[in-house]
Amino acid sequence: MTNMAKKNWDSNLTSEQIHVLRKEGTEPPGSSSLNSEKRDGDYFCIGCGTKLFNASMKYESGSGWPSFYKALPEVFDTKTDYHLGYARTEYHCKKCGGHHGHIFDDGPEPTGKRYCNNGICLFFESKKA
Hints:
Layout: H1 3-10, H2 15-21, E1 41-45, E2 51-54, E3 58-59, E4 67-68, E5 76-81, E6 88-93, E7 99-104, E8 114-117, E9 122-126
Antiparallel strand pairs: 1-2, 1-9, 3-4, 4-8, 5-6, 6-7, 7-8
């Protein structure tokens, strides 16, 4: 990914979205309207439009961030993050490199995973009835 391509995508983002997507920040817990989203549909990367999650993968974790027990195949790269002084698995959109959140091992079956996503990094499109 070239810096020019990221710059062009970034021109459509708010400063808060850039802070999270490009600088690996975190939005305040409970701040995303997507926490209460219950409709059928899909979640996309705000940085590039890649479809990341289906609504059927979402669950209420009580963490304050939209949470999913799995992602669509091959949409994220991961790395180890030590920002809090211990190892956490951080995930980024493969297409634009945007930071979305962290993966934890306290999610529901069948995966046992929790993709704890910053809602500011997502947009939702509902399925038509």
